[in-house]
Automatic annotation (TrEMBL):
Protein name (record): Carbon-nitrogen family hydrolase
An example Gene Ontology molecular-function term: hydrolase activity
Originating organism: Streptomyces anatolicus
Keywords linked to the UniProt accession: Hydrolase
InterPro entries noted in UniProt: C-N_Hydrolase, C-N_Hydrolase_sf, UPF0012_CS
Highest classification ranks of the organism: Bacteria, Bacillati, Actinomycetota, Actinomycetes, Kitasatosporales
Amino acid sequence: MRASLIQIVVDEDETVNSRRARVSSLVREVAGRERPDLVVLPELWTTGAFAYESFASEAEPLKGLTYEAMAKAASDTGVWLHAGSVPEQAPDGALYNTSLVFSPEGELAASYRKIHRFGFDKGEAVLMSAGSQLVTVRTPTATLGLATCYDLRFPELFRGLVDAGAEMFVVPAGWPERRREHWLVLARARAIEDQAYVLACGTGGTHGGVPQAGHSVVVDPWGEVLAQAGDGEEVLTVDLDPAKVAATREQFPALKDRLLGLDEPRR
């Protein structure tokens, strides 16, 4: 299985419509040149993950302009496309940070509303609603588990995805540069503890006044970094062996030693 992660630079001087068209072209270019089975885009690349003032004005229905552009890019190129995430406006008016995954036929294979919203008492945490469902996507070669950015700090979400059959975690992000080392350590930790691939795709540039970490990374089930980007616009293409997940779990069967339902701590 070959995967291409497209690390986008989000430039605040570029309009959302222009970036949408540019990224659509990038998907086609990368698919033609690299011949991947799976293409991955970052979190909130239309607006920027920290451009809070744009969330409401640029929010789309699930099947909005970005959906249409990405569905066509997937069907035109015949790839599985994780189109990153968009600010989704639900029919009831609520906003969600929603990831879209398309099949090679351009059909929506899955959508995932980000569960853990960043910002504590401001930003995304107060502007967007939380998702409530774990989501996996079964492809012909591997089962993908979906997570987004800040979700990476919550290992219980990833264990839930493992229990649902995930073999590869796809994590689009808009991670800040000042916590870049956390990004890299957490991506490796999720791979090691869950014995799964991690495909973590970030953004470059600066949006909402926050410089971005870039450094998209692909990690194998043993925690080995297979590829890592810099901080600019870049494409990572990596050949993955889905059978390595089962082999790793068999060779080092740590997941079998999980103990659940423990007694409450004594006080």
